[in-house]
Specification:
This protein is mainly alpha-helical. It has a single domain, classed as Rhomboid-like (Rhomboid-like fold, Up-down Bundle), CATH 1.20.1540.10. Helix content is 59%, strand content 10%. Strands 1-2-3 form a three-stranded antiparallel β-sheet. α1 packs antiparallel against α5 and α8 crosses α9. The longest helix has 22 residues. The chain is globular.
Amino acid sequence: MLPLSDHNPRTLTPVVNYLLIAINVWVFFWEFSLGRNLDRALYVVAFIPARFWYAPLYPPNIVRILISMFLHGGWLHIGGNMLYLWIFGDNIEDRLGHVRYGIFYLLCGFIATMTHAVMNAASTLPSIGASGAIAGVLGAYLILFPRAQVKTLIPIFVFIFIRDIPAVIVLGLWFVLQLFVGVASIGPQAANAGGVAVFAHIGGFVAGMLLVALMGGLRRRPRPAYDDFWR
């Protein structure tokens, strides 16, 4: 299933969500401009679990966590991530407000990266992508708007259907799939395996569910007559 849009009105202009998407796209084109030097650059600037645990308090290793949240491995990688962020991020920003949403997003990304680092401590492969932070957005959306209708593309063999499906089903199935793949990937043979950092998704999703409650997302507030950036 591929979400295409949601039917969930908002009152704030999601400027932080737009900014996050813009930064991700800008960094991706920077990566694209590196050509054959990209792999070398990623090993310098991206987060690598084994290098992090060798010196976890070394400031560049901390900075690499933030940088890696805006790096992507290809057009499908960034396209899929930005689609999910575009669909679901605006409503979380609408509920939390601009500043708290920005903090929420970065915290989810940090927790997601550390979950991946704990579960793949010996990995020497760069861990890149916004999907851990975006998984946090999905977890928050599931908590806040489980009944929201999500327009979803459903391929069945050679047929394609588009249906409105409750968010609890779309996001719930997504999370169950991550859990299934994550459990199946546990083992020493996965230390340097390529592919998706599934435990970053799991950690980010759970973090989003908890953080949105801790940051006041469950409390509905009266909307101001103007878009107060610092709300």
